[in-house]
Amino acid sequence: MKTTTSSKLRIIIPVVVYLIIWEALALYIDSRVLLVSPVKVGVRLFELMKSTPFWQSICFSLLRIFLGLVLAIGLSLISGISSAKSRIVKDMLEPLIMTMKATPVASIVILVLIWVSSRNLSVVISFMMVFPVMHTSLYKGIINVDPRLLEMADVYGVGTMKRIRYIYLPQIASYFESGITISLGLCFKSGIAAEVIAIPDGSIGEKLYEAKLYLATADLFAWTVAIIILAKVFEKVLLFIVRKALAHMEVS
Fold first, then answer.
1. What is the pLDDT of residue 166?
2. What are the residues facing 31 on neighbouring strands?
3. End-to-end CA distance of the chain, in Å?
4. pLDDT of 48 strictly over 90
5. What is the 3-state secondary structure of the chain?
6. Rounded to two decimals, what is the model's pTM?
7. Half-sphere exposure of residue 169, counting CA atoms within 13 Å on the CB side?
């Protein structure tokens, strides 16, 4: 109980300190355009949450970002396993992965807009940001599996499915979770950034662009806070599902 309380305080106290600093700066600057107080941002966020367009924009962006994430995870499973098992596949994919990692989001957005409509741009951008991270994480997880366990499996004639369940899954799990944690942040940042550039109707990116255009700083901060909360909740839910699925596969 004491450990739980202590861990919560370690999270709450820094947040409170930063909110106080934010409030002090807002009072010092005294300009609603340059910086609004956290209290006003909170009030504005609750006002937005009462409106239907707010939730429509959340659903619009979240659905596309989630789709990009799922596609990236699915393809990275194939590419990561293939690269770990085949040197040719690894060599063929490596330049592509390096290019995807190094290319700026803005450049990718402009190029992709030539081929994809603005409404679906965040799907492609989220995919392109997540895929290299998940591919690398899964590849490293597979090649770092303890060779002694594989040798033991060879000696005792352990089948492929049992190897995957009892050797590979436990060893890869931490790499997979780490990749998911990193990917979700990139996924939301890049997906929303793409929407701000392409401005698809009904998206979070459109709301951020409008807030900047009309100097509605409270709206800008409120939407930003909403994105942060959404990303964190999404991360917790997804990691919970992944852990439960992995645990179920190991036990069954």
1. 74
2. 35
3. 32
4. yes
5. CHHHHHHHHHHHHHHHHHHHHHHHHHHHHCECCCECCHHHHHHHHHHHHCCHHHHHHHHHHHHHHHHHHHHHHHHHHHHHHHHHHCHHHHHHHHHHHHHHHHCCHHHHHHHHCCCCCHHHHHHHHHHHHHHHHHHHHHHHHHHCCCHHHHHHHHHCCCCHHHHHHHHHHHHHHHHHHHHHHHHHHHHHHHHHHHHHHHCCCCCHHHHHHHHHHCCCHHHHHHHHHHHHHHHHHHHHHHHHHHHHHHHHHHHC
6. 0.84
7. 18
Residue 167, pLDDT above cutoff 80: no
pLDDT of residue 131: 92
The torsion angle over the Cα atoms of residues 234, 235, 238 and 241, rounded to 10 degrees, is -120
From CA 187, how far away is CA 180, in angstroms rounded? Answer: 10
Written as six digits, the tokens of 217 are 């700083």
Average pLDDT, the chain: 86
What is the rounded distance in angstroms from the CA atom of residue 15 to the CA atom of residue 191?
A: 26
Among all chains, which residue has been given the structure tokens 């040798």? 151
CA distance 50 to 211: 18
User: How buried is 94 (Cβ within 10 angstroms: 0-12 exposed, 13-18 middle, 19+ buried)?
Assistant: exposed
Q: What are the structure tokens assigned to 2, written together?
A: 């004491």
**Amino acid identity for residue 93 in this structure:** L
Name which of 101, 87, 169, 85 is nearest 136 in CA terms. 101
